Amino acid sequence: MIFRHSPLLRSALAILALLVLLAACGQHRVAPVTALPVHFAQVEDVRLAYRTIGTGPPLLMIMGYAGTMDIWDATLVDRLAKTRRVILFDNRSMGHSSASDAPATMERMARDTLGLIQALNLDRPDVLGWSMGSIIAQEMALARPDAVGKLVLYGSACQPGPVLDALDRMDAMSHEQLLASLFPAEWVRRNPGVYGRLPVPALPSSPEAMARQRQGMRQWPGTADRLPELRGPVLLLVGEEDNVTPVAQSVTMAALIRGAWLVRFDGGGHWLMYQNPDAMAEVVETFLGTRQDLLD
C-alpha cells in the first residue's frame, strides 16, 4: 500500500499545512511549546520524545490524530504548568518520536503511554487527552486503572463511527471549506485574529504515520460497553459546535461513567483550546483540584 497518495490523508495534511502557513505571521502570548527542550524515553520498540514544564503533581497530555506535542496551545500549557508538572509527548512515529512499522492501534498507543509513565517514574499522573488522545486515555484507564489518576477527555468519543465520518467529510472539502471548518463561523467573525495565534509544529507528521493512525481508529472497537467500568474521576470537555467529535458522544459518555463531569462550551468547536485556553484551563484546574469522593 502506498500511503503517500492515499486520499484519506488529505484532511490531516491540509490541516497541518494550514497551521504552519497561518501561524507563521502570528504572535504567541506566551513562549511556544517548541521553546521547551526535547527529551527521549525508550518505550518498547520506539523512542518517545517528550517535553516538560512546571512543577507539582504530574499532568500527562496526549495529542490527537495527525498532531504532535508542538500544537498544544501555549497559553493552555503555561496556565496548567503554574500548578502542575505538565508532560507533553509525541505518539510513536510522530514529530520527534522514532518511527515504527508496527500498527498504530489505540491499544498499542495506550501501552506506549503507560510505558512512558513508567519510564519517567510518574506516580499515577492525571491525564488529559484530546480527540484521539482521549481515546488512548480511555484505553489506558481501562487496562491499568492503578497507573493513572484523574482523566480529562477533551473532544472525546466512545464510538469510532462519528470520528471517521468527520474525517471522511474533511477529505472531500476544498482548501477554503477546510479552513472554514476549523472554528464556528460566528465565533471567527468575532475573533478574526485566531488564525495568527495557531502554533507552528517543529516537525511535520509523515503521511505513513498518519495513515497508520487512521487505520488504528478504524480498527478500534469503541468503549461504550466498557465505560461503566471506569472508577476514577472523569471530566468530559466538549464544544457545542464540535464537528469532529459531536457533543452527543460526550453526553453519552457522561451518562455511562459514574460521577463524570460534563462541561459544554457554547460556541466551541473541536479546536476549543485555541478559542479560549484560559477558560478551558480554569475548568481543568477546578476539576483536578476537587476531591470528589465524599465517602473516602
Task: Characterise this structure.
This protein is an alpha/beta fold. It has a single domain (3-288), classed as Alpha/Beta hydrolase fold, catalytic domain (Rossmann fold, 3-Layer(aba) Sandwich), CATH 3.40.50. Helices cover 38% and strands 15% of the residues. The protein is built from 11 helices and 8 strands. It has helices at 10-23, 74-80, 106-119, 132-143, 160-171, 175-181, 185-190, 207-219, 247-256, 272-275, 277-288, and strands at 39-43, 46-53, 58-62, 85-89, 126-130, 151-154, 234-239, 261-265. Strands 1-2-4-3-5-6-7-8 form an 8-stranded mixed β-sheet, with helices on both faces. Strand 5, helix 4 (132-143) and strand 6 (151-154) form a beta-alpha-beta unit. Helix 2 (74-80) runs parallel beside helix 11 and helix 3 crosses helix 4 (132-143). The protein is globular. Mean pLDDT is 90; it is low at 1-9 and 17-28.
Main beta sheet: 8 strands, mixed
Radius of gyration from CA coordinates: 18 Å
What is the number of domains?
A: 1
Ends: how far apart? 54 Å
- Give the H and E element order: HEEEHEHEHEHHHHEHEHH
- Mean pLDDT, to the nearest integer, reads 90
Kindly estimate the percentage of residues that lie in beta strands according to DSSP: 5-15%
Helical content stands at: 25-40%
- Can you identify the CATH class? Alpha Beta
Rough outline = globular
How would you sum up this structure in a few lines?
The chain is an alpha/beta fold.
List keywords for this structure.
Rossmann fold; eight-stranded mixed β-sheet; disordered N terminus; 296 residues; alpha/beta
